[in-house]
Structures are given as structure tokens and as C-alpha cells.
User: Fold this.
Amino acid sequence: MLKLLFIGDIVGRPGRDILATKLPGLRREREIDFVIANGENAAAGSGITASLAKSILGCGVDAITLGDHVWDQRGWENEITEIEHVCRPANLPKSNPGWDHLIIEKRGFRVAVFTVLGRTYMGLKAECPFLAADRMVAQLKPQADAIVVEIHAEATSEKIALGWHLDGRVTAVLGTHTHVPTADACVLPKGTAFMCDVGMTGPYAGVLGREVRPVVDRFLDGMPRKFEVATGDVRISAALVEIAASSANANSIELVTVRA
Assistant:
């Protein structure tokens, strides 16, 4: 039996700080073999930088995935290929820099991970996530013992549909992007762990990790404002998946919440 922890969107300094403080102990206590984290909001809530990616990996994260804020930080398009264990969404145009998947290995067991962006209510130009996932699964099957798919998307229907589409072909389909953990963690009939959104790692005393007042005022009058990262009620939110090494099927999945 192997254990994989998938950490939801790391938001700003609060998310990075709780990761540095709590993840090493969590890995030991729960005997976790693999840790994957979405880092697309690590830099003040939008994007990531090389120095931040290195600091997240230094906390005990084995692989960093990204989402629709992948190119928000200036210069990251030049840095991404210099940082190992970071991948951008696999269904972006092939001309985009960076790796479209990662393979991490522990105890002689290889886990491949890739991200697909949803296309409903999402801004980036992206290939169909279903067709991209089919392509990536076919490519990675000979290279890995298990495959974990992140669906970074807004629409719950799109995420759930992808879970059913890949059931039995991958170990887990895990949703990110909305920053709100969902109560639907399950193992689908053919052995794929699924969760619509694993939540965010950051401050929950806010609106999706941002200070309350500017967001509320924007809804009231429509005027643009700077949304600073909030600071209160900081948590790690993640999905813990137990994997049967013999079959690469998921035995269980649960939401893990760690408070500061």
C-alpha cells in the first residue's frame, strides 16, 4: 500500500508558510510516500516564481502542478524549464514552454501526474481536456505504475464527467481551481479515486483566499480593486489517496485538513 497526498492550490505567503510548518510532520505521521501540490497561486495569489517553486519543493513536495495562472508572473516562462519537478497544464498549446507531465518514484513505484485545464468559464486557450487526457494516459501507461490526473476547472460537471471518463484507466482524478473543498470524495466503480475539488492551502477567513472587503465592494459596484491575500484561518487542504501497489487502483480517498 502506498499513500499519495495531493495538496490544493497554495495561496500566497500564508499558504506557503503553513506548508513549511506542517507538511514535514504530516508526511511522517501519515507515512505519506508521494506529495503533489498545485502551486499556481503561490506568488501573492497569482502565479509562481522560480524561488517560490524551490521553496515549496524544499518543504517536502515531490511535484508541483500549475493551472490557469501559470504565466501570471513575469519571466516565469523563461524559468519554468530550469526548475525540476514542476509541470504546466498538458492541454496548453505545444509551443508553451515547460513539461506537460512529471514522473516521481518512491519505493520502486512510479507515479505520473499531469494537469488538464477545463474549458467551461476558463480563459486560457486549451485543447479539449478529455482528448488531451486520453492522449496523455496512452503516452504515460508504459512509463509509470500509476497515473494521477488533475482537472483544473471551474465547472463541477466538467470535472465529474472527466472522472467517469477516466475511471479504471488512472489511479486518481482530482479537481482544483475553485478553492472550496467538496464533500464528494469517493472511489469510482473501476478503481479510480475522485474528488471534485481538494480545496486550497491558504487563508479561509476571506473570499477564496482574498481579503473580504475589496471583493464584496467589487460585487456591489463593479469597480476594479486590488484583491490582497487574506491572513486568517489558514489551512492545508488536500486529498489523501491510498494506492494498491499490485493493481494501481485506489483503495480509498479522504479529505485532509490541517489548521495553523
